[in-house]
């Protein structure tokens, strides 16, 4: 399951936006430049719930933050809207890099954790499963809520009437079977 998301070839046969993102990532070699950090494109574009204001989220596994900082600054510092933030949150060091390419806001997030174990990846996987389980109308409702201003995880929580922190709840649900998801949420 992890490998299908590591290779962005799936974008080539997706929506017009997904095809555009594929071309952008290839043209600017974004994933190739980050290849030492196991990059994965996550978020709304891969699962087809992006809206006009969506950005491209790339997660990375970073073991040496100094080396990573040098690399990303060498590759991306010259780009529009470049920013670099490195901090510790809940005892975990992380880095966030933002810039814009051809009108697309890009966010690179890194922490010392395999990319397939990071929250951004886990959220995308459970959201993709739900989109497939609950169908086209569910997907359209998620996009509608996003256009109304909700972020992705809160949009899922709203539609599914989940209580508590939507980010934590979706992480917990990632271990549920499809049957458990279907039985607990009638859409």
Q: Mind explaining what this structure looks like?
A:
This is DUF4269 domain-containing protein. Pfam families: DUF4269. The protein has 9 helices and 5 strands, in the order αααβαβαβββαααα. The radius of gyration is 17 Å and the shape is globular. It has 2 domains: 2-114, Beta Polymerase, domain 2 (2-Layer Sandwich), CATH 3.30.460; 121-184, no CATH class. By secondary structure, it is an alpha+beta fold. Strands 1-2-5-4-3 form a 5-stranded mixed sheet, sandwiched between helices. Helices cover 48% and strands 20% of the residues. A hairpin with a 2-residue loop joins strand 3 and strand 4 (92-101).
Furnish the topology, listing elements before pairings:
Layout: H1 2-6, H2 16-27, H3 30-33, E1 40-42, H4 44-47, E2 56-61, H5 65-76, E3 80-89, E4 92-101, E5 104-111, H6 119-147, H7 152-160, H8 166-173, H9 178-184
Parallel strand pairs: 2-5
Antiparallel strand pairs: 1-2, 3-4, 4-5
Helix pairs in contact: 6-7, 6-8, 7-8
Organism: Fontibacillus panacisegetis
InterPro entries: DUF4269, NT_sf
Protein name: DUF4269 domain-containing protein
């Amino acid at each position: 399951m992890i490998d299908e998301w590591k290779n962005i070839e799936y974008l080539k046969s997706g929506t017009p936006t997904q095809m555009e993102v594929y071309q952008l990532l290839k043209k600017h070699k974004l994933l190739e430049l980050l290849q030492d950090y196991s990059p994965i494109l996550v978020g709304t574009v891969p699962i087809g719930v992006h809206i006009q204001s969506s950005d491209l989220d790339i997660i990375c596994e970073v073991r040496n933050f100094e080396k990573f900082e040098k690399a990303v600054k060498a590759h991306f510092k010259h780009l529009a809207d470049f920013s670099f933030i490195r901090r510790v949150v809940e005892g975990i060091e992380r880095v966030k890099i933002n810039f814009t390419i051809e009108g697309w806001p890009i966010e690179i997030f890194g922490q010392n954790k395999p990319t397939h174990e990071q929250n951004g990846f886990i959220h995308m996987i459970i959201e993709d499963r739900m989109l497939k389980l609950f169908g086209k109308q569910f997907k359209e409702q998620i996009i509608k809520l996003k256009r109304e201003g909700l972020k992705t995880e809160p949009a899922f929580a709203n539609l599914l009437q989940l209580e508590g922190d939507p980010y934590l709840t979706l992480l917990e649900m990632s271990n549920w079977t499809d049957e458990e998801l279907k039985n607990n949420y009638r859409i």
